[in-house]
């Protein structure tokens, strides 16, 4: 048994406490100065404490982070980006264990201790990308926990053999399998969804579906997914990524659809792109539709942007949705931390007894202050181990 005393920290900016950690889990919170003896003592210096950030939508296998600059090219459409990536990725060694590890290190440096990452599975890379992500994560000794989504970036039905790869990935440990714009990529929404739901049901894995289509076409696919989720008994195991159309619909249609999503137990992940329509997040909360935040791709052949800081995404969400009050600004931080728990299958993720000791310390007054300034992560603790100290990586 190993014990750590994290002394004098302020959870969410509240009263100072001592946090006792035993074997990587939080075992006790007590008033500051009252903590007992431990194998290791960390002075929290009265810093604000948050739970580790949860990146609910990433693509850590596709980055050229740490390599020379790659200029943007190709057509700026989903089909165009897919074609450009397929043509160029081998030149840059994508997927790469080293680049993946570099991105994961940036996640950790910014306080992310768990992520759900989509990993490309196609006829060119097979399952090699999944193996590379697992190797990169293993090299970081548990600093960031990984949940894998086997992702058919190049389509499902239009590429014979991809379904078999997804099935193999599910059999070999992927927590979820992905899908992509059934109507516009495969041009067969019923066929793609039937095939994916069959694998998910048979292999007892989740589904995480990229949906970029707008307007009525996007809404139609949400309805198909919700109906199949209920029929298959997969409530709580299906997620929609991006889902741009939801914020674009007329209010009555949107309200009916949000209720259907809630009944189907479907969750939603967003990267809060600035040009997108705001999500009806208050209606989604009321209907029980979980929302997670993610960084999406970071410096990859889709976009040169991104640095792995989920606080920047949370601030983007707040600005996109016009959040101003302390309560709403705190909610944006909660989306990046506590509310991310279901996306990495954690029942308890927070500064609470029994939770994995993933703790981020920042020099800030309160959660709204954290959001608007995104200050340096002074200390990051993952499963009771210090992985960032004075803003510098220790792994």
UniProtKB/TrEMBL annotation:
Superkingdom to which the source organism belongs: Bacteria
GO molecular function ontology, one term from the record: hydrolase activity, acting on carbon-nitrogen (but not peptide) bonds, in cyclic amidines
Coiled coil: none
Originating species: Kribbella jejuensis
Annotated Pfam families: Amidohydro_3
Protein name per UniProt: Cytosine deaminase
InterPro entries (alphabetical): Amidohydro_3, Metal-dep_hydrolase_composite, Metal_Hydrolase, Metallo-hydrolase_Enzymes
All copies of domain Amidohydrolase, residue ranges: 42-388
């Amino acid at each position: 048994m190993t014990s750590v005393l994290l002394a004098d920290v302020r959870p969410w900016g509240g009263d100072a406490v001592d946090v006792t950690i035993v074997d990587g889990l939080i075992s006790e919170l007590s008033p500051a100065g009252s903590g007992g003896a431990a194998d290791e003592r960390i002075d929290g210096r009265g810093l604000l404490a948050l739970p580790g950030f949860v990146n609910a939508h990433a693509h850590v296998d596709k980055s050229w982070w740490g390599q020379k600059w790659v200029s943007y090219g190709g057509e700026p459409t989903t089909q165009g980006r897919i074609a450009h990536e397929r043509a160029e990725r081998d030149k840059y060694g994508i997927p790469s264990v080293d680049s993946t590890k570099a991105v994961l290190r940036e996640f950790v440096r910014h306080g992310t201790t768990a992520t759900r990452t989509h990993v490309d599975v196609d006829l060119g890379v097979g399952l090699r990308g999944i193996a590379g992500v697992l190797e990169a994560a293993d090299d970081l000794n548990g600093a960031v926990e990984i949940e894998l989504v086997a992702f058919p970036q190049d389509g499902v039905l239009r590429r014979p053999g991809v379904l078999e790869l997804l099935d193999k990935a599910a059999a070999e440990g992927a927590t979820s399998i992905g899908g992509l714009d059934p109507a516009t990529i495969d041009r067969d929404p019923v066929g793609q969804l039937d095939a994916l739901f069959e694998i998910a049901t048979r292999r007892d894995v989740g589904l995480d579906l990229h949906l970029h289509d707008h307007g009525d076409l996007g809404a139609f696919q949400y309805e198909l997914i919700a109906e199949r989720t209920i029929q298959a008994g997969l409530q709580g195991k299906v997620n929609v990524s991006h889902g741009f159309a939801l914020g674009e619909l007329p209010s009555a249609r949107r309200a009916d659809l949000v209720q259907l999503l809630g009944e189907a137990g479907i969750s939603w992940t967003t990267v809060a792109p600035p040009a997108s329509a705001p999500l009806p997040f208050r209606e989604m909360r009321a209907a029980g539709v979980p929302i997670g935040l993610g960084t999406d791709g970071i410096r990859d052949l889709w976009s040169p942007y991104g640095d792995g800081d989920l606080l920047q995404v949370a601030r983007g969400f707040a600005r996109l949705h016009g959040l101003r009050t302390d309560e709403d600004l705190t909610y944006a931080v909660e989306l990046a931390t506590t509310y991310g728990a279901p996306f990495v299958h954690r029942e308890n993720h927070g500064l609470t007894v029994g939770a994995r000791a993933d703790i981020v310390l920042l020099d800030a007054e309160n959660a709204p202050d954290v959001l608007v300034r995104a200050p340096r992560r002074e200390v990051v603790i993952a499963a009771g181990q210090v992985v960032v100290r004075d803003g510098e990586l220790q792994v």
